[in-house]
Amino acid sequence: MIDDEKMDWDVYYGGPSRSMEKRAALDVLALAKELAALPERALERVPLSDALREQVLEAQRITANVAHKRQVQFLAKQMRKREDELPAIRAALDAPKVDRRRAASALHHIEAWRDRLLHEGDEAINELLAALPNADRQQLRQLVRQAKFEAEKNKPPAAARALFRAIQDAYGEAILPQDI
Q1: Fewer CB within 10 Å, N- or C-terminus of the chain?
Q2: What is the number of other CB atoms lying within 10 angstroms of the CB of residue 121?
Q3: Which pTM was predicted?
């Protein structure tokens, strides 16, 4: 009987399955498409060998649909030959995505604090001041009162926006906590 935990199936079957190879090839093709779609400034930040950079620029230069597709497939083939470069390329392409997600998360966190301040009042202000001692209690209370008044009178939410900016300024460069 074969022990599944200790068995190296790639060795047992003579290598990875065709499905695994195809998934890996499609992954590299998607990476090649992403590289070919990058603007020049973003491409400069990606660590590519001169040969791959040339292939990417060639794929960007070609605009005819079929020829472009063929060139991107050729780029993917060249990238599969240089598997040692792929992790660095993936990391360089993922870094801006992570930064954008982190910034979006921070904005959602600040919006959640603003909503809590508007609904819970002084209790939420006390919690926010415990988390951010550099925030101005008087300014926060005044902005909350103004925002509630504007909402009652169906006026534009200028105070709510100012409250958002005040919370954002209080955070400054502080690391945002995960929980609200």
Answers
A1: N
A2: 14
A3: 0.55
